[in-house]
Design a protein that fits this description.
The protein has 13 helices and 13 strands. It has 362 residues and is α/β, with parallel strands linked by helices.
């Protein structure tokens, strides 16, 4: 199969993790595939041989220049390479219908279900670009059952197109350095859905027994505001605010955590849940559909979005038994990037099959 992968959006965050791990896994799963990958010309994404890298210049503001580049160059490469199928790694892709089938990866629909968590301009941009992606796609790769259900509910026309759930892998952590456990709990604050206010309320509820807490993803003006909030709550000696870490520091930090605290109120998947369990670190989650789907009953789950419930789940997680951690690790072993590729190829293969003949009119 000859595949063109459109990855011009894959520079940061979860989509970068997705592309970084999907490409090498593809070589292992389907070495006979001819895979061409579109990336921005200044991208640090590694496209391993024999996959073929196509550098695309994106000049000007990303919000305008990138959609133009996606539309122009995806169509151009389809004409030049004549791939069997195109895989877009984000719904925000070419706005032009292609001459070959298009499969689109869908992560979440948070901008529609939690619009208050987005600036108006970003929400409108996603609404327009994602909506066009849903319309032009011939099929969908969803990273969770939760996301696929949301897609079908909010965009009913998508339910008539082929789709597959391809969970993300977690086996990339197998090569992370293991420095031994610390007494530090790690949580996240780079988006409002990560629920930092609830975490801080829970730490107040823990009182003198509260363990050290490291909050990742705090930067800019927000750092000053949160420093003041932590001090006001009397948590200055317990809570440490940290910016985005480079990849090496992040890996060491998560692998050495006493507990991964992930009470996000909205996720498409929740990769830190699988990463923590696979590393042998206890994980705490809230009653959120995607993280519950991923955890499979092996995380320490809050029953409500209340500080006392967060405190209870944290205490339970810190007291996790070796048997509980081993069971969680065994569950997480099922999440591999090879499985992600296998399921994704299954969807792309479906798109290449001829449509069934129409039945006789009644």
């Amino acid at each position: 199969m000859r595949i063109l992968v459109e990855a011009l959006c894959a520079e940061y965050g979860g989509i970068r993790t997705y592309v970084d791990n999907l490409l090498p896994a593809w070589m292992a799963v389907a070495p006979d595939d001819e895979v061409h990958v579109m990336v921005q010309s200044d991208s640090t994404i590694v496209v391993p041989a024999p996959l073929v890298r196509h550098d695309i210049a994106v000049r000007g503001p990303q919000s305008v220049a990138r959609p133009l580049a996606q539309t122009r160059h995806t169509s151009r490469l389809v004409r030049e390479l004549r791939p069997d199928v195109v895989l877009a790694t984000l719904p925000s892709t070419t706005v032009r219908r292609l001459d070959v089938p298009l499969g689109v990866v869908v992560y979440d629909l948070r901008h529609e279900l939690r619009p208050e968590q987005f600036e108006r301009s970003r929400r409108l941009l996603r609404w327009a670009s994602y909506g066009r992606g849903y319309a032009t796609a011939d099929g969908f790769v969803s990273i969770s059952h939760r996301t696929l259900s949301d897609l079908h509910a909010l965009h009913p026309a998508t339910a008539d197109k082929p789709a597959v759930v391809a969970h993300l892998g977690g086996d990339h952590v197998d090569h992370w350095p293991h420095t031994g456990p610390s007494d530090r709990v790690v949580t996240f604050a780079h988006h409002t859905n990560k629920n930092l206010d609830l975490v801080l309320d829970g730490w107040q509820h823990l009182g003198p027994t509260a363990p050290e807490l490291l909050v990742l993803g705090v930067s800019g003006d927000r750092r000053t505001t949160l420093d003041e909030e932590v001090a006001r709550r009397g948590l200055a000696g317990v809570v440490t605010l940290a910016p985005f870490l480079d990849e090496g520091d992040f890996r060491r930090t998560l692998a050495g955590a006493a507990l991964v605290l992930f009470p996000s109120d909205f996720e498409g998947f929740g990769l830190p849940v699988v990463e923590g369990m696979r590393l042998g670190v206890p994980v705490v989650i809230g009653p959120e559909p995607a993280t519950r789907e991923v955890a499979g009953g092996h995380a320490f789950e809050m029953s409500t979005w209340q500080p006392d419930e967060l405190a209870r789940a944290v205490r339970a997680g810190l007291a996790a038994t070796p048997a509980q951690l081993a069971s969680a690790r065994e569950h997480a072993a099922g999440f591999t990037w090879a499985n992600t590729v296998t399921q994704t190829r299954a969807l792309l293969t479906t798109l290449l099959e001829p449509a069934p003949p129409a039945g006789r009119p009644g």
